[in-house]
Amino acid sequence: QVQLVESGGGLVQAGGSLRLSCVASRTIFSVNTMGWYRQAPGKQRELVAIFTHGSNTNYAASVKGRFTISRDNGKNTMYLQMNSLKPEDTAVYFCSARYDRDYWGQGTQVTVSS
Length: 114
What we know:
globular; mainly beta
């Protein structure tokens, strides 16, 4: 079993920044696929940013240039730096990591006010 715990969400005004963290209970050194997703009320969960093949990154078009995904293998932690936040970024943000299967965190709420 692997536990993923997200933190760093909150309420921020449009144009502001937040940094989300996702701490894993096992080493992420050998995890090639891990990323951030979000789900807004009434909408399906969508990919925000992801590591593939270890260090390759991909971003949703809606966040490219504003969000940055990073990881610190020594701390078993993945981050999502979110800048220039918009009201449409409001959602519950989840992290996911692929070990023997995909594991998910419980989510952290991000609310961006206009």
